[in-house]
Every structure is written in C-alpha cells, then in structure tokens.
Amino acid sequence: MNRGKVKWGVLGVAGIAVRKVIPGMQKGEWSEIAAIASRDARKAERAAKSLGIPKAYGSYEALLADPEIEAIYNPLPNHLHVPWSIKAAEAGKHVLCEKPLSLSVAEAKTLLPVRERTGVKIGEAFMVKTHPQWLRTRELIRKGVIGELRAMVGAFSYFNRDPQNVRNNPEWGGGALMDIGCYPITTSRFIFGEEPVRVAGLIERDPDFKTDRLTSAMMEFPSGHSIFTCSTQLVPYQRMQFLGTKGRIEIKIPFNAPNDRPCELFIDDGRDVFGGGISTEVIPACDQYTVQGDAFSKAIREGGEVPVPLEDAIANMAVMEAVFRAGESGRWEKP
Predict the structure, then answer these.
(1) What torsion, rounded to 10 degrees, do the Cα atoms 228, 233, 237, 240 define?
(2) Which of 2, 83, 92, 320 is the one with CA 20 to 30 A from 215?
(3) How far is Cα 27 from Cα 19, in angstroms, rounded to an integer?
C-alpha cells in the first residue's frame, strides 16, 4: 500500500486553481501536485514553472493517461465538471471536483454508476465543510451555546459585469446561485444537519447575460428557517448569522476565509443591542485549501469517506434547482 503523499494532477489553469487551491495543496502533509494540464501547452508550462509543478501537459487526456497521477482536481468551467470527472474516474483517478459539481441533479446522478463501476472516490470541493471555523461553529451550536438554533441569515456578493467571464454565461452554469448561493445552502444544511422541506425564491436576471444576478431564498428546515441573498452585482460582502433562542453566532468571513490571518466568530449572549454580550473567538490562521486537499488525500490513503461525497453534492443541487423553480413559479417548491 502506498504510504507517501497522494500525487495530484490539475485539469486546466483556472484562476482559483492557480491562485488558491494549488498553493494551498502544495503545503499539505498528504497532498502533492505532480502535474498540470491545459489545452494550450504553453499555458500549462507557464503555470507549472511559476508554481513549481514537475510536469505540464498540453491536453487533459495526456494528464489522465499518466500512470503516476492518483487523483485529479477539476476546476474547469461548470459545464465541464461532470464530463471530465467521468473521464478522470474512468482513467482510474480519484476526483475532487470544484463546486457546483454539476449543472443539474440529473447530470450529477450520472456520476453515481461511474463511481460504483470504477471504485474511485469522487467529491465536491466545498472547502467550508472542513474549515475549523465551520467545525467550531457547528460544535458550539450542538453544545447549546446559543440555546436552540432556529434561524440562519446569510449574504454573499461581489460585483462582476465582465461579459467574457464564465460566471456571466448561463449555458456554462453562470449566475449568482450556482457560483455563490450554493455556499449558504450547503452550510445551512451542514449546520442544521437536515435537508430543507421546501424553499421559496426571488430571482432577478441580468438583461444582457440572462444569468441570475440577484437571488434570494427562504428555506424551511424541520428545525427552523434559513434565508439568504446572493448577487454577482453588489458590493463585495459575506456574512453568516446563526440565531438561537438564547444567543447568536456570527461568522465574520464565512466563505473566502483568509489564509494569512486568523478567522473570527462573534458569540453574542444577546444581553443588549449594542453588542455588550459579544465575545470573539479567534480561529488560528490556516489555509482552507490545504485542509480540504489533505482531508481528501487522507480519505484516499486510509479508505475513509471524502468530506463532500456525491450524495451530498446531489442533495445541494436539488435545493438549488428548487430555488430556481420557485423563482419562476412564485410558489414554494420541494427539493
């Protein structure tokens, strides 16, 4: 049995891969980035050189044919997630696929028989699920620090009207809900430990791109409610609040947690509206992409479950689809 670091290959030179995920994984105890591929060989070589990656390939197929590569990180545009994850699995490689895993529930489900047949691990790259600040928030809530958790309120936004950007292309799975609304959904499911019973949605589309640029949703869970607004054309902002019967927790930077400074949780006992009851819990600085990569690599080496398996990715996509349906129908929809 191989005991060394898992040898990873990266499909494409996406911004998130080059700027965040690869440098994060390179610091891992369990992960090694051994190769990178692009359809443009020069791009692959440039990325490999600047990041100190030993091998560069001028096609995705060549990377998948490399017998040394054990696992693939897939940060391609959303519409290429499932097709290339299938090709990677069929080449015998484990797959960590960037979120959202697919464009629909039906498409995501096509990965289930592939996983069964190939025996590889396939997971979705929701790095929030392994970040210590989220694990700590869940722990505090389960301990009853805020009484009974009843409501969550979230916001996640940035401003991007670049017509060339993949996030503004509806055919490629662009728009606010797919790109960032998936985070408040997955974290609400994670913290409640439940699936929503029904959802309502409000969607405003960009007149030119036709992507959803302002999306809000209400989710009814067995234990309470979660509501959020996400947008691709608002001031950059992100926050998640958890309201209990006796107190409140707020995560200051819930999704793009920095890797160079500590994270903060605000724990409020609710004694006054001026914040007199707020204490701050500091979560030591860590790189969430290092943590995510190592958790996945460890699952490969030790045979455990990956942090976000296909079943979880499919359940999350089902909620997103229900929000889209509710936005069209103006009615409550069941995931």
Answers:
(1) 10
(2) 83
(3) 13
| Phi, psi of 220, deg, nearest 5 | -100, 120
Give the count of beta carbons closer than 10 Å to the beta carbon of residue 208: 10
Q: Is the pLDDT of residue 220 over 60?
A: yes
Separation CA 96–CA 123 (nearest Å): 5
Residue 309 is encoded by which pair of tokens?
């398996």
What does the buried/exposed string (b/e) look like for 257-266 if buried means 16 or more CB atoms within 10 Å of the residue's CB? Answer: bebeeebebb
Which residue from 304, 126, 307, 322 is spatially nearest to 219, judged by alpha carbons? 322
Q: Which residue has the tokens 């290959």?
A: 9
Residue among 113, 66, 128, 62 nearest 92 (CA): 66
Which tokens is 76 given?
């391609």
Residue given tokens 């001031």 in the structure block: 235
Beta-carbon contacts of 117 under 8 Å, excluding residues fewer than 6 positions away, are: none
Give me 201's structure tokens: 């949605």
Closest CA to 288 of 328, 309, 250, 261: 261
Tell me the pLDDT band of 136, cut-offs 50, 70 and 90.
very high
Report the candidate in 3, 33, 31, 30 with the shortest Cα–Cα distance to residue 17. 33
Is the distance from CB of 248 to CB of 242 less than 8 angstroms?
yes
Pair 189, 319: CB distance under 8 Å:
yes
Cβ neighbours for 154, distance < 8 A, ≥ 6 positions apart: 183, 184, 187, 188, 226, 227, 228, 229, 239, 240, 241, 254
Three-state DSSP class for residue 187: helix
Q: What is the CA angle 19-24-29, rounded to 5? A: 160
Q: What is the pLDDT of residues 52-103, one digit of tens each?
A: 999 999 999 999 999 999 999 999 999 999 999 999 999 999 999 999 999 9
Among 31, 25, 21, which residue's Cα sits nearest to residue 298? 31
Of the candidates 250, 255, 251, the one whose C-alpha atom is nearest the C-alpha of residue 269 is 250
Q: Are 243 and 146 in contact (CB under 8 A)?
A: yes
Each residue's pLDDT tens digit, 262-294 = 999 999 999 999 999 999 999 999 999 999 999
